[in-house]
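Figure 2 data, in text form.
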Amino acid sequence: MKQRFGTIVLSVLIVASLSAAVSAQVPPLIDREIFFGNPEYAGAQISPDGKYISFIKPLNGTMNVWVKGIAEPFGAARPLTNDVRPVRSYFWARDGKYILFVQDKGGDENFNVYAVNPADKPATGSQVPEARNITSATGVRAMMHAVPRSEPDAIYIGLNDRDRAWHDLYKVKISTGERERIMENRDRLQRMMFDNSDKLRLATRSAPNGDTEFLRVNEDGSTTKIYSCDAFEECAPLRFHKDNKRLYIRTNKDDADLIELAFLDVATGKVERVEGDPLKKVDLANAIFSDRTNELVATIYEDDRKRIFWKDSQYKKDQEEIKKRLGDRDVYFQ
């Protein structure tokens, strides 16, 4: 009996010792706030006129848009929106007079486009200036298509006000909200793309069989299919080349194992490979373009760490300077 008791005690001590050893090797739990909490700053942009820096940060616990003068300290930043639902993204009007953002009400997914003047003072009894609903649509959903450089007081949007299934193309005047229907969407078009001269040139759609189709928009408003990939492939338009004849696309159509960067000639449908991962390991994640020159600035590949291949030496120098100041961190560019 004593021998059995001694064996039991020894077994318990061994198990306890092993448990303690295992516990000692387990790293401490990481607070979920680190993964899912709001960042301190996100989505920083410089206004087109160079007067402001804007960014998203929490206001009353919710992500909202803030702005500061280019020379002001961040402590002087002031909020421009005070939504109870997070403002996930925003963009500047081309002349820097307005910040624009898309938002719904209470999660109803009926999105409208709002404009707020960064120079305005807070409205009476509010922490922020008034944001105007420039699409002012009820029960429909607005989607952004383009912010034209040639018309800084305009944006191109899609609205499904005529047909709930498909969005017609509209031009909206930012300063007044006046809108004009440019094209009725009777071809199930989804994304509409403008070239560097702000001319509608391309649209995409999903075919009934799951294919993704690229369609050229002709002078008379009709459309012609020029490219497609099936449901097991991926293809997406990125931006028009500076010659306005070719389109940068991401694609792994046919025999390509990884998603690569390619040119698509909009007139002929001819495809020309531009670049794939130099290490032949991962898909092309994104491409960065200069909004001033329309040149390809860099290609990005998401490996264990983000790999950026710069095409512009000045941008590369800028990144190196940022890394000197911030350390070995992944820096995101847009």
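Caption note: Residues 94 and 151 are 8 Å apart (CA to CA).
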